[in-house]
Amino acid sequence: MSNPHSPAPLAFITGASSGIGQALAARFARSGYRLALVARRTADMQAFADAHGWGPDRCRVYGADVADIQSIVAAGQACLAAQGVPDVVVANAGVSIGMDTRERDDLDVMARTFALNNTGVAATFHPFVAAMAARGSGALVGIASVAAIRGLPGHGAYCASKAAVVAYCESLRGELRGSGVSVVTLLPGYVDTPLTRENRYAMPFLLSPETFADRAFDAIVGGVSYRVIPWQMGVVAKLLRLLPNAWFDRALAGRARKHRQGGGKSDA
To answer: Of the listed 158, 168, 201, 226, which one is catalytic?
Structure first.
């Protein structure tokens, strides 16, 4: 029998100032979770929490730059001190900016992308792994992308970083096997967020953030280890993975590329 005096479960979510992060926060809140919301834009997150009537007993806001290891680690430690060990940690913060390897400045874009999309995921999980394992329960959720499955022209930094999220989460899942802590890898297709609204190409099976959040929540609480959302994009991506390189290159010839620096959007 559950203890009626035990606190509600806690979800720690990065990139919570817009898009998928806010939609996930709302979805977890509807299921009775307390929230720890993390992003650089603390005023936006606090306004979001206030608009939903979430007081400090339901939701706390932590400012952090996920690309800065000590910044996000400190946010996690602050959450542990103020709210306890989360039941779910969602490493959602990410950036999507096009790059051209011929351009020197774009190497800096790539480094920032990896710092946020890759090292930032590990740094988000770091404060909680030992405590979750000691408790014997919890879920660590890495938000990758269907773009992880095949490299797209002009998307080198993004595709590579999201492929790395998939590989990292798979490694971590093996490391935590038997601990009671699950690792969930989610690969969104196209979701209507600030990250995608300036894309210059077709976005099939586009989902609203709320629809994505509903499906992601079901996957997380259902103990799924890997899921592409929506499943149709998973089928398309797998078919593209099976194409011989020459056919794949021909299929993408002339496809519009993602905006480079200045046109990218961040959910960090």
So the answer is: 158
Beta strands 10-14 and 265-266 are: unpaired
- Catalytic annotation present for 158: yes
Q: Which tens digits make up the pLDDT trace of 146-162?
A: 989 877 777 889 999 99
List, for residues 119-135, the tens digit of each pLDDT value: 999 999 999 999 999 99
The whole-angstrom separation of Cα 158 and Cα 253 is 19
Q: Where are the beta strands (DSSP E) in the chain?
A: 10-14, 34-39, 59-63, 88-91, 95-96, 138-143, 181-188, 226-229, 265-266
CATH of domain 10-266: 3.40.50.720
Instruction: Give residue 141's pLDDT band: very low, low, confident or very high (50, 70, 90).
Output: very high
Rounded to two decimals, the pTM is 0.88
DSSP string, 207-262: B-HHHHHHHHHHHHHTT-SEEEESHHHHHHHHHHHHS-HHHHHHHHTTPPPPP-TT
Domains in the chain: boundaries: 10-266
DSSP strand pairing (265-266 vs 95-96): antiparallel
Q: Which two tokens stand for residue 265?
A: 């959007």
Q: What angle do CA 19, 22, 25 make, to 5 degrees?
A: 145
CA distance 15 to 191: 15
Nearest in space to 65 (alpha carbons), one of 110, 108, 119, 24: 119
State how far Cα 238 lies from the chain centre: 21
Rounded CA-CA distance 106/74 in Å is 29
